[in-house]
Specification:
116 residues; alpha+beta; HIT family, subunit A; 5-stranded antiparallel β-sheet; 3 helices; 5 strands; globular; binds guanosine-5'-monophosphate; binds zinc ion
Length: 116
């Protein structure tokens, strides 16, 4: 399923430009338009799942695939040995703004903890 009004569906379908760093049949990864670190990549399923729960219910394996792709991209972006952070923002209190499941890969600088 794809949603023509969803910005990430449009990126996944290559109807909206993004700086793509990785792609396969199930997912696509691209640089965040408003990077919060020198390396800030979003890894998304090509299918539209509004939330983690939708993805987990409909295709639990997809979350593992996003994770595996993130690990591979971290190596390619040379942050695997330095350290990096993987984040899913879920819902209002986590500040989720795009309602198409996405995994953030952040790295290339020291990241504070706890996050704000
Ligand atoms: P959230 O806050 O929902 O976890 O993260 C959404 C992320 O998507 C934000 O970091 C935002 O900068 C990024 N984003 C929103 N629209 C676009 C877009 O059109 N292109 C790209 N590359 N990133 C986007
Ligand atoms: Zn979507």
């Amino acid at each position: 399923m794809s949603n023509s009004e969803c910005v990430f569906c449009r990126i996944g379908a290559r109807k909206l430009h993004a700086m793509v760093v990785h792609e396969d049949d199930d997912l696509i990864a691209f640089r965040d338009i408003n990077p919060q670190a020198p390396i800030h990549v979003l890894i998304i399923p090509k299918k539209h799942y509004p939330s983690l729960y939708d993805a987990h219910r409909e295709d639990p394996g997809i979350l593992g695939k996003l994770n595996a792709a993130a690990l591979q991209i971290a190596e390619k972006e040379r942050v695997a040995s330095r350290g990096f952070r993987l984040v899913f923002n879920h819902g209002d209190e986590a500040g989720q703004t795009v309602h198409h499941v996405h995994l953030h890969l952040l790295g290339g600088r020291a990241l504070r903890w706890p996050p704000g």
